[in-house]
Amino acid sequence: MSPGAPKGTTIGYYARNFADGYRWEIPLRVGYEIADWWNLPEEPEASRAVVGWTGENGNTRERNASLRLGICTIVNPRPGVPVKSFDFTSTLTKAAPFVVAVTVE
Fold first, then answer.
1. Is the separation of the CB atoms in 43 and 28 below 8 Å?
2. What is the separation of C-alpha 53 from the centre of its chain, rounded to a whole number of angstroms?
3. Gap between the Cα atoms of 40 and 18, Å rounded
4. Of 32, 37, 68, 30, which Cα lies nearest the Cα of 47?
């Protein structure tokens, strides 16, 4: 199982919109910032993220798998400028990216 796209595919973007008008887009690439949330034995983790939560349900137990949510930490290049808003955009691949939480320092 994969997140609907081959490794390296950009399936979406996070964007931080700063108070001074600067917009910083961060690509979400399969195998780097994100991985499939179905954690099958053969499914690799994302190289720029760590697993922050795991769980299971009836479907995952039948397949000797689990579920996982990743944490991808990205250093703010403009720590002195307030973040005005945050955008999350899909590139409309077969993948279905989602965000659970965001913190900004």
1. no
2. 13
3. 38
4. 32
**CA distance linking residue 76 with residue 27, whole number of Å:** 14
- Which tens digit of pLDDT belongs to each residue from 15-59? 999 999 999 999 999 999 999 889 887 777 899 999 999 999 999
Which tokens hold the place of 10? Answer: 């950009």
Please give the sequence-ordered ranges of beta strands (E in DSSP) within 1-105, or none if there are none: 10-18, 23-29, 38-39, 50-55, 66-71, 83-90
pTM: 0.81
Tokens of 62: 């039948």
C-beta separation of 16 from 86 below 8 A: yes
90 backbone dihedrals φ, ψ, rounded to 5°: -90, 150
pLDDT 10s digits, 61-79: 999 999 999 999 888 889 9
Say if residues 73 and 47 touch (Cβ distance below 8 Å): no
Expressed in angstroms, the distance from the first to the final Cα of the chain is 34
